[in-house]
Amino acid sequence: MSEPETSVMTPAEQATEARFVSVALDLPLDRLYTYAVPPAMSGQIAPGMRVEVPFGRGNKPMVGYVAEVLDRCELPEVKELRGPVDDGPLIGPDLMALARWMAHYYVTPLGQVLTAILPAAVKKQAGFKTVRLVVRGERTEADMDRVLSKQQRVLDRLDALDNPVTPRELARMAGCTTAVIKALEQKGLVRIVTKQTEEFARDLYVPVESETPPELNNEQRLALQRIKALIAKGEFGCVVVNGVTGSGKTEIYLRAIEQVVAAGGQAIVLVPEIALTPQTIRRFRQRFTEVAVLHSHLTDVERHREWRDIRDGRAQVIVGARSAVFAPAGNLRLIVIDEEHETSFKQETAPRYHARDVALVRAHLLGVPVILGSATPSLESKHNCTTHDHYAETRLTARVQGRPMPPVEIVDLRLTSRERKGYHALSMALEKAIAETLDRQEQVILFLNRRGFSTYVFCPSCGYTLRCTDCDVSMTFHREANECRCHYCDRAVAPPEKCPACGSPSMNFFGLGTERLEEEVKRKFELARIARMDSDTMRSRGAHNQVLTAVRDRQVDVLIGTQMIAKGLDFPNVTLVGVINADVSMNLPDFRASERTFQLISQVAGRAGRGPKGGRILVQTFNPDHEAVRLAAAHDYEGFAAMELEHRRTFGYPPFTRLARIIVRGGNEDQVLAHCRDVTQCLRDVAAAVPSGPIQVLGPAPCPITRINRQFRYQVLVKAPKARGIMDLFDRVRDSLTPGNDDLAIAVDIDPTSTL
Ligand code: ADP
Ligand code: ZN
Ligand code: ZN
After folding, report:
1. Is pLDDT of 10 > 50?
2. Smaller CB count within 10 Å for the chain: N or C?
3. Distance from residue 505's CA to the centre of ligand 2 (Å)
4. Total-model pTM
């Protein structure tokens, strides 16, 4: 992240008479368009407002955002805008400044950024409808004399009403047709007004019993002091709360927010979408009465209502996933990012922003503090604590109430294949541990980050592997659905009965997914009640909730799942966690593979022994000597961070350098490669002239997954010592990055979290 350059305008500065405006349109073209403001509207137009404008040769009506109000315009000819779309700006000045920073930093047209910032539900004004209502006109005694009796009945009804009704309703009440009302309107005895009414369902603020907050321990108190000092000063600053799982980080957030809310401020709390469980939300509702929640399962009406509650200052706390960083809180005094290391904070479509970095910029613009919490802080944040004045690290080294960290045992999968015949996902050691746990009436979580039944469909006679025809990946067999599915484009085909290549009738199904694991557990523990949580079983709304409630009520003995169960779950009766295969993330061709493996084992391990009964963790792996596995098992984050940072420094990877990646996509491989070569050349030429270098341009090379959805993918990587270098480079090339060809697409990914 680099320092933001835009500043926030005060409302007084914006209220100047608008003669011209620059408008951002939601187009892939990276420019603003100037329009003249009709004199009659000049007082109503302000930045952040949506306006309708005529666009292009045919003057097609389009909706855009006013980026700037100008009192001059050098262009010889400008079109007039047609008018405002809403009553006022939907994007306030601070979000507008943030959007400008994003457009610049993430090399994305401002119109696309603004479109991402404003929820579709708000743009649609979901939950509002325009109704026509009958009200009294200004009638005189003289007028009344000429009223027919039918008309008099209508007027009497109208007088007796508490709330205005529509013409149709009034006619029904008075037993006449709407023509009678129309006649009254013509005489000026009634008027028909249009009004917007909201039809928001008011059922989101669930009353929850409040709880007595626990007494803080010393480490918590120290962390809280630091944060409170920043809040009191009203200054930007970032406190990294580096605390092991169960060390009471959330309790610190709650206390810090209390201070903010007591002073009339608002706070945003970002958590990974999968950690946005009812359990998490309840913890905030127990302490605060007005909690707005933004998650992906909201209906449009619900989302719009939450947005309004936030904008109008009714919501004290906003809890949400990635995009909640754009919550229109006008009185924002604190941003908390829990599990700040999570990759789901990075958006993988344009604008490819990282919510943590955007949060830091937003806080910087406003002069408010940020809390970054994690048991495994990203190496970027860890590094910032030693190099950045605004960063401070505070550690929580122990779980609350002296609860021990659960012991982690490593099971060497290279040895277990000799234990017994046949294929077993569960080693003898893990099987025995499950049996013992179930005997004690305690619960088990089994973690496997691969869904489906088997991950390869393979012919032993000729070596053929079933691959997606549209993507460069192998297909996964799903037994319940009885199909082979591509996890990138969701294409499904019937499982082949014989080899499509050589005709051999015996296809093998290899590799282990959650479906197959579930089958094995069912077979080995017939009496156990088993639930599986992955994106196949969690398709319906509420399914997630149902399973978690069942686990909480101890109606599930063994919970099997993908990364969905790695975060935020806190069940005191879960005393055993098994990691079925720790190697899945280790073998990815990405420089963060070790970090991901370490984080995953630590997070999953954090699900065990959260109650007084304690717990244990078994990690199965083919690489028991891998540093990430060894150090995660020893709960040694500091050791891992020191080692991995040294490695990154040696090889020139982030956080010691900054990366950007440009991906060229298209249906024709030759064309894609040719264009990627041109882009590479252009970047090289410009990079040589950037003063904030030295900048390395690496490529072109095929992406590790070369084809997705019939699109070939090639990439160029750019490496610079500082963010400034990357920004200087893209400032110079951003105008030449359009492909100039409809069959090609270019994506710029600044600070990529994955290079697949
Ligand atoms: P983390 O966010 O680090 O995983 P939590 O804040 O969720 O940890 O704390 C874990 C549990 O311990 C919660 O049930 C919380 O209410 C409780 N807790 C937090 N701080 C204390 C404390 N100082 N004393 C006792 N219990 C605490
Ligand atoms: Zn074959
Ligand atoms: Zn596919």
Report:
1. no
2. C
3. 8
4. 0.87
